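Researcher: Here's my situation. A collaborator sent me these components and asked whether they could plausibly form a single complex. I don't have experimental data yet, so a predicted model of the whole assembly would be a useful starting point for our discussion.
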Amino acid sequence: MERVTHVIGTVHEVSLKGANRGWFERALLANVRSALRGLPVAEVSIPARVVVRFSEPVPWGEVFGRLFTVFGLNGIIPVERTGTTYDQLERFVGEHADEFQGKTFAVRCKRSDKRFPMTSVEVNRRLGAFVNERTGMAVDLENPDVTLHVLVQSDGLYLFRDRYPGPGGLPAGTSGRVLVLLSGGIDSPAAAYLAMKRGTRAHYVHFHSAPYTSDASVGKVERLVRFLTRHQGASRLAVVPFGDCQREIVALCPERLRVVLYRRMMLRAAQRIARRWRCEALVTGESLNQVASQTLENMAAIDRVAHMPVLRPLVGMDKQEIIAVAERAGTYELSILPHQDCCSFLQPQHPATRTTPAACEEAEAALDVEAWARRLQHEATVTVIQHRWDESPTG
Ligand code: ATP
Ligand code: MG
């Protein structure tokens, strides 16, 4: 199958929503429309599942690549619309019978329009008998070579052979906004992906140590944000020069606490930016005990300075699981390009694994933390990153 004229997107979680269902559906349809911008879309509707009708055949690979960025779609299915009656369905199947190659087959009908005069079982039986007579293939309901799926919806009958998994989750923009602390490593882009998958819109903040280290991480982070923005159309990125603040922490505070103190400063600056952008939570790529700074004690000491939730979508994952998420998100390839993170700049020999808030506060007495947070916020360079599919199609 090279080109398609109809595609159906199945929804799972969205369809379980009660009173809010219409609102979730409208958000999903808007996201589907913007993912397909520039393609000849005639209509997008949601009679039961999401139905996209194109005014002319479009390449399936392009459509799939785009819809795979739309959270809320659980399955993405290239379908044929066969009309509105059983007779039309049967005629269509008859005309395409020579395409069914295999010894055995099964018909599986799902009827979401209960006004349709036949039940699913009746469609299965009648179409099964017809295909058997036409092609000589035998029915095998357990392990068929060919499966003919029929969807009976209020807007018509659809036929398909294969369904492809979608990204799942909830439509972007239905769960509020978050600010992701994005480092350029493998983890934080995966965390951003999972936060967006739960329906948030993500904005980003990145700290770099230029002029003390190269600013190569900035270009990398921009590429990552550009890529992640495919899920939501536009996002903001704040790039914060952090080197001077780190220098002062190094000069005035105990070496063992450095990393936790860096993080606390990052969090203070990040939440100022978050408030300005009306983000309701911060997101990090931390995973419990992955490295010395990510012990429960250190996370607690870091979170003490936060006045908003700090979400850690990767908290229970091991590295292999995180890599699998990054691969699914498509960020892995970008993340493994070499870069120098600001936290490896002036890294202590033996970072503390069991910091306490009190120890951090005592160390920070030497700094004017609020002045630093303000300065970091003001020195941030903000870029608005837009993604337009018609300018950069898939592949
Ligand atoms: P990552 O793979 O995301 O770099 P990591 O496993 O290297 O994570 P750390 O370096 O301990 O872990 O960073 C933990 C989290 O702190 C990151 O996932 C990210 O959310 C945040 N963070 C670290 N460095 C930066 C940075 N330079 N700018 C913004 N956020 C950062
Ligand atoms: Mg890192």
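Model: Some features of this prediction you could bring to your collaborator: The chain has a mean pLDDT of 93. Residues 183, 185, 341 surround magnesium ion (ligand 2) (CB under 6 Å).
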